[in-house]
Amino acid sequence: MEHNGALDSLLQEERVFRPLPQLVIEANVNPQEYDAAVRNGNDDYLSYWEDAARELDWFRKWNQVLDDSNPPFYRWFPGAKCNIVYNALDRHITTANKNKLALIWEGETGDTQKFTYYELYRAVNRFANALRSLGIKKGDRVVIYMSPLPETIIAMLAVAKIGAVHCMVFAGFSAKALRERINDAQAKLVITADGFYRNGRPINLKKVIDEAVEGCDSVDTVVVVHRANVQVEMNEPRDLWYEALVRQESPECPTEVMDANDMLFLLYSSGTTGKPKGIVHGHGGYMVGVHRSLNWVFDIKPTDIFCCTADVGWITGHSYVVYGPLMAGTTTVLYEGHPLYPQADRMWDVIAKYGVTIFYTAPTLIRMLMRFGTQYPKMHDLSTLRLLGSVGEPINPEAWVWFYKNIGRSECPIIDTWWQTETGSFIICPFPISLLKPGSVFKPLPGIEADVVDEQGNPVPPGKGGQLILKRPWPSMLLGLYKDPERYKEAYWSQVPGAYLAGDVARKDEDGYIWIQGRSDDVLNIAGHRIGTAELESALVAHRAVAEAAVIGVPDSIKGEVAKAFVILNEDYNDPEDPDELLKQLKDHIRRELGPVAVVKSIEIREKLPKTRSGKIMRRILKAEEMGEDVGDTSTLEND
C-alpha cells in the first residue's frame, strides 16, 4: 500500500455549529470583511500586514515591510523604531483607557489586587528606573522566575521598556533546568519571589534560585518579591527586596527606542526532547502579529473582561496574558493558583466574580474539570461569557462539545487556536463568525499561507494527513534560535525548501478545515497505516468512562507497531465488577469509532499521566517506561 508519507485519517467528525446571528452582527470583522481580508492576504500579504502595522504607534516608520534577502532569517519592518511597551502602556495614558482597569489579579488564598492602566504604567516605570540603577541596559538578559503575580507582569514590561531582554522561566522548573537557562542566556540579573501558593500550601522559590545561581558567573543581582512570607536567606549584597528597591524610584521613565528587530524576549522550549532551544522574538513584527490576531480573533470590545489561564512563563502568557491584552486596551484577569483549589469550581468562580466575557484555556484543563461533571459549573452564573478559546494541543471533539454546552451555554463560539512558541501569535484558527467543527482549528488567518504536505513536500489530498507547513514568513515569527543559527535552519527550514516545518501532523477536509493529528514524533505506523495519536486519544475520551488518555506505539512482531493506551477514568464512573470488561468495552469502542485499522493492543488505567507544567502529556516518558529505557530529562514534569 503506497502512502507517500501521508497519514491515514480515521476520526470522522461531522457536527457543525453556527454562531448566533447577534454575534455575527456585532463582530469586529463581519463575514464580508473577513472574505476581503483573506483575499487581500492572499493577493498582497505584505500590504495586508502593513495595514496591520499602522494600527500601532511607531517612533519611526519602516523602510520596507519585509527584508527577505537572507532566508530563512526574515526581518519584518526593517528601519522602523518602536518599543512594544509603548503600545502596551504609554500610549494609553493619553486616552480614556488611562483610568480603565488593566489587570485584576486573584491569589490562590483569595487576596486580590487591581491596577488601572495608569497605575500599572507607574509601577512599571518605577521598576524600570530601579533596573537602570542596578546597571541593566539595552540588550542585557534578565531571567524572571516567578508564579503569576502582578509583579511578574511588571517585571516583564520594565525589562522590555529599558530595552533589555526578558527570559521567563516557568516557576516549576528545577534548579538544574533554571541554571542551564541562566547560563545559556548569560543573564546579569534574576527576578523571583520568596514563594507562591499552590494547592493550598506555600512553595519556596527563593531556595531554588539560591541553588540555581551557584556556578552562574554572569548573575550580579537577585531581586526578590514578597509574596508567601516563607523563610528565605538573603545573600547580601547580591539579593535585594523588590519593595525596598522601587520605593524611592520615580514613576516616570523614558521608553527605550528600539529597532523593530531588536530582541524583546528569549523563551526556552520546555526541554522535553533534548537540549532546550532559546527562541528569540523581537519588538516590531511580534507586536503586529499579536495585536492584530487578538483584536480580530477574540473580537475585543471596550467592555470585555479577558481571562487566559496560561502561565505567564509560556508563550501564551507572553502573547495573550501580557502583551496582547495590554496593547488592545482590555482588562485581564490573572489567577495565581491551582484550578482545583479549594475545589473544582475555582475557575467558574473567577468567571462569575469578575464578569469574564472571554475565557481562553487548554484542553487539559477542560478535560480535568470534565471529570467532576456539571455540578460545579451549575453552581455559578457564567452568563457573562461570550467567547471561549482553546490552546496548547488538539482538543478532542467530546471535550469541545462539553465546554460548548456546559460552560458556553451552547451560545459561545469556541476559538480553537493553533500556534507555537515559534510563531508568536495565532496562525490557524476560526473567527467568532465561522462555522465550527469540533476538533478542527479551522483555516489559516488572513495573511498566513499554510498547507499539509507529504515527505516530498507535495500537497496531500483532502482526508489524508501529512506535515503541516507555513509557506511564507509572517510578522510574529521567531527571529531565530539564540546563538544557534544552524540549528534554526536545520530544525525548521530544511525539510521542505522555502517553507517552515511546524513539526505537527495534520489533515485538511473537503472544506479546507485543518485538523491537527499530533506531533510528528507521535505518529504510529500500524501495519503500514500511519496514524496520529490524537485520533486514538479522541476516540478513547469519547467513551463515558474516560476523562483523559495518552497513546504510544510499542513494537509488534506482526504489525510492526501497535498502540498502547493509558487512561484516567471519570470521577463519577462506576467500575464494572470485572475490570477486564471495561478494557474490552474500550477496545470495542475504538474499533467502532475508528475502524479495524486502529489496533490497541493494551489499555492501562492510571490515576495520573506524566505532564509538563503547561499541561501537555509527555508520551516519551510513558514510552521509555514501557520499553524499560532511561526516561531522560524530567525537569519539566508537573510531578517531577
From TrEMBL:
GO terms for molecular function: acetate-CoA ligase activity; AMP binding; ATP binding. Residues 34-88 form the Acetyl-coenzyme A synthetase N-terminal domain. One of its GO terms (biological process) is acetyl-CoA biosynthetic process from acetate. PROSITE patterns: AMP_BINDING. Keywords: Acetylation, ATP-binding, Ligase, Nucleotide-binding. The keyword ATP-binding applies. SUPFAM superfamilies: Acetyl-CoA synthetase-like (SSF56801). Residues 96-474 form the AMP-dependent synthetase/ligase domain. It is an enzyme of class 6 (ligase). Its EC number is 6.2.1.1. Residues 535-616 form the AMP-binding enzyme C-terminal domain. Pfam families: ACAS_N, AMP-binding, AMP-binding_C. PANTHER family: ACETYL-COENZYME A SYNTHETASE, ACETYL-COENZYME A SYNTHETASE 1. Belongs to the ATP-dependent AMP-binding enzyme family. NCBIfam families: Ac_CoA_lig_AcsA (TIGR02188), PRK00174.1 (NF001208). This is Acetate--CoA ligase. The lineage of its organism: Bacteria, Pseudomonadati, Thermodesulfobacteriota, Desulfovibrionia, Desulfovibrionales.
